[in-house]
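Is this the right way to post structure tokens for a design question? Let me know if I should format differently. Anyway, here goes:
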């Protein structure tokens, strides 16, 4: 009888230990899934891709929303400063682009963008951007590459055109044109 009670207690201890570990594992999985879902939501707000597979692929690559914001915004700041000055129209266009990507006033990203709009981004930042953008580029599918090129270079071209030139003539300066060509080379 005593052995039977001891055996039942040991069985109960075994079950509780097993289920405690299993519950702990399930809880950990739920927390990890919540983190991934949170990253997916933040990345989706920045990338604005219609295909959720693109977001999943970026997450698999370890690309986060902050990195994607930098990849998208550094060229905008650089092209706006390409001719040595930042036009008011360019500034407004950049802030509009940032707003469309979910960057809100008061956020760290907005503050960084404001710094870039006051001071020309240095060559070290552009070099880091090129290296990182190229690294992402090499990991993308062909359709993702098209989206990335169109998004970044297209938006940079819009910023360059925002200053407008004189009566719409020569709206992109030679310096801006050279930088746009440099951006294109990153995505080839």
């Amino acid at each position: 009888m005593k052995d039977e009670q001891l055996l039942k207690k040991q069985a109960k201890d075994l079950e509780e230990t097993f289920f405690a570990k299993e519950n702990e594992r399930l809880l950990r999985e739920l927390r990890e899934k919540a983190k991934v879902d949170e990253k997916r939501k933040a990345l989706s707000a920045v990338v604005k891709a219609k295909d959720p597979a693109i977001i999943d692929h970026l997450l698999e690559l370890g690309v986060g929303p902050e990195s994607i914001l930098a990849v998208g915004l550094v060229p905008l700041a650089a092209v706006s400063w390409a001719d040595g000055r930042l036009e008011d129209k360019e500034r407004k266009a950049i802030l509009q682009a940032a707003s469309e990507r979910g960057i809100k006033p008061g956020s760290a990203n907005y503050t960084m963008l404001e710094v870039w709009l006051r001071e020309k981004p240095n060559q070290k930042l552009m070099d880091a951007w090129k290296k990182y953008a190229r690294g992402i580029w090499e990991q993308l599918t062909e359709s993702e590459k098209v989206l990335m090129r169109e998004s970044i270079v297209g938006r940079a071209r819009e910023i360059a055109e925002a200053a407008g030139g004189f009566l719409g003539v020569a709206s992109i300066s030679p310096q801006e044109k050279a930088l746009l060509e440099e951006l294109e080379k990153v995505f080839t």
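Format looks fine. Someone answered above. Worth noting: The radius of gyration is 25 Å. The CA atoms of residues 29 and 54 lie 23 Å apart.
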